[in-house]
Amino acid sequence: MVHRNNMVIMILLILVLSFSSPVIAKEDGKFNSSNGCSCHSSSSTSTTPTHNFPSSYTPSTSYSIQIGLTGGVSGTKGGFSLEVSQGTLSTGISIGSVQINSAANQATHTTSNYRSWGLYWESPSSGSGNVIFELAVLSANGNGGTSGDSWGTISPFTSLETSSQNTPPEASSLSFNTQNPTKISGLSINYTFFDADGDLEQGTEINWKINNISSPNVDNMTSIPNNLITKGDLWEVAVTPNDGIDFGEIISEGPVEIHNSPPSISEININPENPNDDDNLLLNYEYFDLDNDLEQEHEIHWYLDGVRQNEIDNMVNISSLMIRYGDTWQISITPYDGSDYGETVWSNLIIIGSSNTPPTINVDYSRYNIKTIDDIFLSFDFFDVDGDQIQNTEIMWYKNSLNMPNLDNLNIIPNSSTEKNEVWNFSIRVSDGLAWSDWFHSANIIVNNTPPVVISSMISSENITTADNISISWQQYDEDGDSEINSQIKWFLDGIWIPDFDNLITIPSSFTTRNQIWNFQITPNDGEDFGEIFMSTPILIENAAPIESIIFLESGYLGLISPMEEIIFEDTNEIFSIENLTLVIGYKDVDDDQISFKISWSRNGFHVPELDNQSHIPKNLLSPGQSWSVSVLASDPFGLSSLVSKSVIISNMPPEAIMNDISESLIPGSMTLFNASSSVDMDGTINSWIWTINNKEIYGMSFEIFLDSGQHDIKLTVIDNLGLSHTIQSIINVDTIYTVDNLIINLDGANINLEWSWNGPSTDFNIYRSTSPINSVIGLSPLDEYPEWGDPIPTPLTPIAFTSDKSWSEEAPVAAKVYYAVTTFSDGKEVVWISADNNMISIDASSAANSTYLNKSDNSSISIISSILLMFIGISSIGINLFLRRNRK
User: Membrane spanning segments where (predicted)?
Assistant: First the structure.
């Protein structure tokens, strides 16, 4: 089967090629030339077509086709000719200029200025089979002739149809919008679309028939235009669903008959519009029928005061003899077209008026300069040609064009109902019992602003003195609730207006003098209008007390009392007891009166009478921590005074830490003196001395300790009796510590011999001995860590010998291991540093017990005494250790 299909394709290709005849190309394109062109001579340079034809296609799909060429003759001019066996070609958006033939199966260029082109190809519908593309391109040299050009073609290109796995859609539940359609209801359909693949509906076909004849002009419509619907026609419909890929099965509905449309009535009215009791009533209406049926036997019913009047049914004209003033008439009409009755339509209610001449009215009302405090009123009189009296009056009030029904029929609108800027008007009419007069409509009545009123004023003080500013305030009432804005103020001095002070609410005291009389005048304003002028009562400027003095306390010799402007005020932050406490007073009297002073001192809250009126406190009365306060009463000749007070606490001066110059007396390896006895406290005593040496605290004014060689951080803090402290810090360097070298020991019978070398200046040597290792000859130092429980506590050792030689010997004091240490002196001070590698050594003297020397009687007592002494030293060490441990806990 495959071979057969291939054979068929080959035959078709041969036929296509055999029927293709040479054609002549042109600059504006040439169809039927997809196999090449004989009119253009081919140059030696070959031209190769380029394209993007799909190797396979999906039915009913649009593809963008790009055509070009490579190689060929040089230049930019060229052309092409394309032919496709199936589908539809279109220009779309092209790179060059492209034209399509009428059959839409061939394309060529429109101008020779390009060598690349673009167009669109719409693939054929499903089941169309494979598609053949044939293409020829031309590269032209642009000489205006046919010589020297080059063209090339492709072998027929086959695009295979992609088999679809699509499931066709389904349509169901097809129905008309009504079972009895009319021109009124219209004719439309509803149906349900379903696609198992979830495809959207696309391309569904709807086919209509009218009276069993196809009606293609309405195909694919779901609703038939009303103008095509005619009573009595029979309609049927068929729906073929499509998902854009495949059609589903056809469903149909009908035929359905178009039924009669009932008629209707519009524009019903009774003339005249406002009939009187001497008018005939004439019915007018418009009949309408969508099917253009003529009006048949309609039903017209007349109702008088709600009761049907049977005797005048179907009449359109009622005589005035049948109506009277005050009647209420209404009409109903039910149209009929010979088949159906339409809906019943009712006219508006018609009330029969009177032929009586209505009265006329003359109105007077307040309309100008109405404020929010004013009522709005109206009055009227009337005239009736029939001599009738007024039976009814109707008044309607409007605020800002809105009716105010709660105020209707009032002659007066109280001001409580109005607000600023509202626009009021009214309408009024009267009735003589038979007829109403025409409405009278008033002009707009605008409610204007009510100016404010000053209701009270205040000044800053009841009694204004020359030291006081005159500050005023006032309260104003505004009927409209407006705030005070831009009120005017005028000031008067002794009855004379002072324009320079206009609109000031405060007159500075510098502009007033004793016994002046001031007034102020206020013209209130609410931002729109000025109110009535308000005049204050007179303001008498009285004598002022001396201005509150400015005082401050400082350390010095004597106090100072002087005018304010002559004093530079520099309040001292801290006052100490090493100087007098002095008072500085700066005074001023705005009336330039002579001022007297009373000064009162208190210490720790208690008055000190002996210091009254003194301007300083002697330093011998001051101590740190004391609280002193002073009160100064300044008085003028008129008995007015001012009182000021000031307090201060005497500050404590911190102590000054001073340590001795440790580096001056420092001898490496010897005890170093730390002395803080030179520290001072100017206003107290020093209670504590705290030394911190290499982060280890030691308490005491002075002491001696041993320092190893190297750098040491020294800090001294002193604390006085009030808790203030001062700290100094120093760094000292201890040079290398020199000891004896080459210390050796031997046992010669009962004698222990020591020898050493010394490279320093001439010195003496101390010899120390112990039955335990010697780590220190000075005992436990403040810088040493305290031993753990059970460990021995180092105790000071006493030298057993003093020599200037570099050797020394003694008889072995015990027949046991013995430890020796040798120290030197520098500048008269012992170098007490002990090093196990340099100046400490031990020997086992157990063999000395066999020596003849120890067996001699004269030595036995010495041995016994030495043993007892060593035993006592050991027991004492254990006892001291236990005692110190118990105290530490």
Answer: 864-884
Instruction: Specify whether 769 is located in the same domain as 865.
Output: yes
DSSP β-bridge partners for residue 445: 424
The reply to whether 646 and 696 lie within a common domain is no
DSSP string, 324-356: -TT-EEEEEEE-B-SS-B---EEPPPEE-B--S
Q: What DSSP state is assigned to residue 229?
A: -
Distance CA 801, CA 808 (A): 9
Coil vs helix vs strand at 68: strand
What pLDDT does residue 850 have? 78
- To the nearest 10°, report the CA torsion of 678, 684, 688, 694: -50
Q: What is the pLDDT of residues 81-116, one digit of tens each?
A: 999 999 999 986 555 579 999 999 999 999 888 899
- Look up the domain containing 804 and give its range: 741-881
CA–CA distances in Å: residue 276 to residues 351, 386, 437, 688:
8, 17, 15, 126
Q: Among 57, 251, 58, 238, which Cα is nearest to 166's?
A: 58
Average pLDDT rounded to a whole number, residues 686-693: 94
Distance CA 435, CA 441 (A): 18
Dist CA 716 CA 712 (whole Å): 13
CA gap 272, 282 in Å, rounded: 7
Upper half-sphere CA count for residue 2 (Cβ side, 13 Å): 0
Q: Does residue 587 contact residue 565 with C-beta atoms inside 8 Å?
A: no
Q: How confident is the model at residue 93, as a pLDDT?
A: 54
CB atoms within 10 A of CB 617: 24
Angle at 662 between CA 660 and CA 665, to 5 degrees: 110
Residue 551 and residue 538 share a domain: no
Same domain assignment for residues 239 and 272: no
Residue 159 is which amino acid?
S
Pairing of strands 299-304, 307-308: antiparallel
Residues 140 and 176 reside in one and the same domain: no
Q: Would you state the pLDDT for residue 33? A: 62
- State the virtual CA torsion across 96, 101, 105, 110 in degrees, nearest 10: -20
The CA-CA-CA angle for residues 504, 509, 514, to 5°, reads 120
**Cα–Cα distance between 63 and 54 in angstroms, integer?**
8
Domain CATH for 802:
2.60.40.10
pLDDT at 37: 58
Residues 131 and 87: beta-carbon distance below 8 Å: yes
Which pLDDT belongs to residue 885?
Answer: 46
Q: What pLDDT is recorded for position 310?
A: 93
Same domain (yes/no): 389, 283: no
pLDDT of residue 849: 79
Do 563 and 674 share a domain, yes or no?
Answer: no
Q: 656 in a domain, yes or no? A: no
Give a three-class secondary structure readout of 355-414.
CCCCCEEEEEECCCCEECCCCEEEEEEEECCCCCCCCEEEEEEEECCEECHHHCCCCEEC
Domain count, the chain: 8
Residues 6 or more apart in contact with residue 403 via CB below 8 angstroms? 396, 397
In a domain, 657, yes or no: no
* DSSP strands (E only) in 143-250: 150-153, 157-161, 170-176, 187-194, 205-210, 213-214, 223-224, 234-240
Q: 502 and 489 in contact (C-beta within 8 Å)?
A: yes
Determine how many CB atoms are found less than 10 A away from the CB of residue 44: 7
What is the spatial distance between Cα 714 and Cα 734, in angstroms, rounded to a whole number? 13
Same-domain pairing of 280 and 332: yes
Contact predicate 73/149, CB 8 Å: yes
Task: Quote the CA–CA distance of 216 and 337 in Å, as a whole number.
Answer: 33
* Backbone angles phi and psi of 57, in degrees to 5: -135, 155
- Tens digit of each residue's pLDDT (9 = 90 or more) over 23-51: 334 455 566 665 655 565 554 468 999 99
Looking up tokens 């110190």, which residue turns up? 884
Q: Is 489 exposed, middle or buried (0-12, 13-18, 19+ CB in 10 A)?
A: middle
